[in-house]
Amino acid sequence: MFKLGTYNTLEIVRERDQGVYLSDDDGNEVLLPNKYVPEEFMIRDEVKVFLYLDHEERIVATTIEPYATVNSFAYLKCTTVSDIGAFVDWGLEKELFIPFREQASKMRVGSWYLIYVYLDEETNRLVGSSKTNAFLDNSLVLLSPFDEVDLIASHPSPYGWNMIVNQKHLGLVYEDEIFQKVTPGDQLKGFVKKVRPDGKIDLTLQRHGFRAIEPNAQQILDELKSSGGFIDLNDKSDPNDIKDVFQLSKKSFKKAIGSLYKAKKIVIEKDGIRLVD
Which residues make Cβ contacts (< 8 Å) with residue 260, sequence separation at least 6? Predict the structure, then answer.
């Protein structure tokens, strides 16, 4: 059975003037137009393709990878607004439709929006929604402190930044945990600090506790090597200067250089830190 909005591995069954026809295990066939056909192929070869509906609502295959697949989020640019809704560029010839009812705010041409792609069961069409919170669920969060997670920056709040966690949940990175510029749609690695009894997830963009020392120390070593072996920062430096260079809190920086000092990788001088030969 064909799966719209995602990748399907299908078999080439016949060639025609307009392209090749692909078949699934149930004998359903779909056209792969000539411009996407591999230069060399044989009948019965398997091809990985993305399936969606063309302008005439027919299932069509492409080897182009869209910016988002069904049941996932992506930061997309609005290209058209019509009397039925808006359209965003998701990397394919036919743009993704965003009905008015699925717009968190009125969309404008040229603006970027965080969009969730889903299959409308009533029409069997792929559509998008900027009402992203409606597609997140924190009722069952199977995460633990220190777990590494994939994040998409959603929108700022008075406390920090709301993040989409593993394409499933909503979490928050507090303002005092952010040491880098964050903008909507940024894809980041993060770590779970706490899962609260109500399902809310507290996040950090840095490894914390004892797990933070090793990667942060390596980052500092790498920067020292690329800077000629000396950096004019140490445990007495201004926190903002440390943040500008390493995107670390002063506490994390002090832990990292302390571990490097104990390992005899650096010496801590009055005006900075120096790499040991």
Answer: 217, 220, 221, 266, 273
Model pTM score:
0.77
Write the pLDDT tens digit of every residue in 186-209.
999 999 999 999 999 999 988 765
DSSP-assigned states of every residue in the chain: ---TTSEEEEEEEEEETTEEEEE-TT--EEEEEGGGS-SS--TT-EEEEEEEE-TTS-EEEESPPPS--TTEEEEEEEEEE-SSEEEEE-SSSSPEEEEGGG-SS---TT-EEEEEEEEETTTTEEEEES-GGGG---SS----TT-EEEEEEEEEETTEEEEEETTTEEEEEEGGG--S---TT-EEEEEEEEE-TTS-EEEESS--GGGGHHHHHHHHHHHHHHTTTEES--TTS-HHHHHHHHS--HHHHHHHHHHHHHTTSEEEETTEEEE--
- Is the Cα torsion angle 69, 70, 72, 73 positive or negative in sign? positive
Q: CB–CB of 162/154 below 8 Å?
A: yes
The tokens for 144 are 């633990």
Site of tokens 């998008």:
128
Encoded tokens for 42: 């044989």
Under 8 Å between Cβ of 102 and 118:
no
- Residue 17's CB is within 10 A of a number of other CB atoms, namely 5
Residue 141: count other Cβ atoms within 10 Å of its Cβ.
20
- Which residues have C-beta within 8 Å of that of residue 4, sequence separation ≥ 6? 51, 52, 53, 59, 70, 119, 124, 126
243, 163, 235: which is closest to 204 by C-alpha? 163
Q: Which residue has the tokens 């603006």?
A: 111
Instruction: Give the tokens for residue 125.
Output: 């069409």
pLDDT in tens, 229-249: 999 998 899 999 998 888 888
